[in-house]
Design goal:
By secondary structure, this protein is mainly α. It has one domain (15-126). Helix content is 72%, strand content 0%. Helix 3 (51-63) packs antiparallel against helix 4. It is elongated, with a radius of gyration of 27 Å.
């Protein structure tokens, strides 16, 4: 469902504050990593639904330490579970924010593109009668030239 006429402004000061907040988050989580697609495939899936399993396993290990081999790092496991829980909670909030940012950007961008196409149509219509508009029309047309070239390439291959 389109949300017509989202009309808002974000001041330069607000943008700076938001970027500073993101930088603060990154500073508070200096251990964050980026995995390659191959590395991601090699890891067991451990999403939010896995948290209760991991926490139950921690409880089992703490209640029954005698069943664990001496080489098992119980303290490291407890630390990993605690961090997994915190990161899962943080990720949920950040994912919601990212989804809302993306949805709003998509909707506003769509509105802007619709209006930009109208301007382009007006420019194309006026280029014949208004001196100096040809470079503007050519600049605006560049947005659509790649799509036209891609459509023409398969037809030329036949």
């Amino acid at each position: 469902m389109p949300y017509q006429n989202i009309s808002a402004q974000v001041t330069a000061a607000d943008v700076a504050a938001i970027k500073a907040a993101v930088a603060t988050i990154q500073q508070k989580l200096p251990f964050l990593i980026s995995l390659t697609p191959a590395e991601r495939k090699g890891h067991p899936k451990a999403g939010p639904n896995s948290l209760s399993f991991v926490e139950n396993a921690l409880t089992a290990s703490q209640n029954n330490p005698a069943i664990l081999p001496g080489s098992f790092d119980a303290a490291g496991f407890a630390s990993a579970v605690a961090l997994f829980a915190v990161l899962t909670d943080l990720n949920t909030g950040v994912a919601q924010l990212a989804s809302e940012l993306d949805d709003t950007r998509l909707d506003v961008g769509s509105q802007a593109m619709d209006q930009a196409r109208q301007v382009y149509d007006y420019v194309k219509a006026a280029v014949k009668k208004t001196p100096g508009l040809k470079p503007v029309a050519d600049q605006l047309a560049a947005r659509f030239q790649h799509a036209t070239a891609v459509k023409a390439a398969p037809a030329a291959a036949k």
